[in-house]
Specification:
single chain; alpha/beta; Glutaredoxin; five-stranded mixed β-sheet; two-stranded antiparallel ribbon; about 25% strand; globular
């Protein structure tokens, strides 16, 4: 009985299911952009290059746990993906505009993924527009004693070359699952 089920599943013509969250219809986020401070502040659109996938993340460099774990997992996923990783762009947008300077942000994200893009808005309105386009949220407050409290959604967003948000991965998604999803997404290109 098990062998028959496996054979039937192996012959299925249905598309493979992605591990992350898929919104239907897929939001078009191509009109959103932020300055790429790792590339002289040029405008970086939330859209992958032709035949590629863009993975976008909103976080901050002083994050004690979620951000470094997410970027380390993403680095592992790209390693698992093999040759197709060459067709994946990575960008991190900081939500901490006060503390994350261009140099700090670029050094941070590229310490995980050397060719990653470091995105830093010129102000909160620009950042809020880009975050809302993909469904991200954040809040940065400074307490009376000068401590920063930062909240941000801990999600990775995979955007295709048409600017469509194809899949969203939650914090803790296994690198193998992300790599598998990248294979599915890129096989359609």
């Amino acid at each position: 009985m098990i062998a028959v089920t496996l054979v039937v599943a192996g012959c299925s013509s249905e598309p493979e299911e992605l591990s992350g969250f898929v919104r239907t219809p897929a939001p078009n986020v191509a009109s959103a952009s932020l300055p790429d401070v790792s590339n002289g502040g040029t405008d970086f659109a939330m859209q992958a290059a032709a035949g590629e996938i863009l993975i976008l993340y909103f976080g901050y460099t002083s994050c004690p746990d979620v951000c470094p774990t997410t970027l380390a997992d993403l680095r592992s996923a790209l390693g698992e993906a093999g040759d197709i990783a060459d067709r994946v762009q990575v960008a991190m947008a900081t939500v901490d505009l006060e503390r994350d300077t261009d140099e700090v942000l670029t050094g941070y994200v590229q310490s995980f993924i050397p060719d990653a893009h470091a995105l830093r808005a010129n102000g909160d309105d620009e950042l809020r527009a880009a975050a809302e386009a993909v469904g991200a949220d954040y809040d940065v407050t400074v307490t009376e004693d000068g401590k920063y409290e930062v909240f941000h959604t801990a999600l990775l967003y995979a955007i295709d070359d048409a600017g469509l948000l194809q899949v969203t991965w939650a914090f803790g998604t296994e690198p193998e699952s992300i790599a598998r999803d990248l294979g599915i997404l890129l096989s359609a290109k």
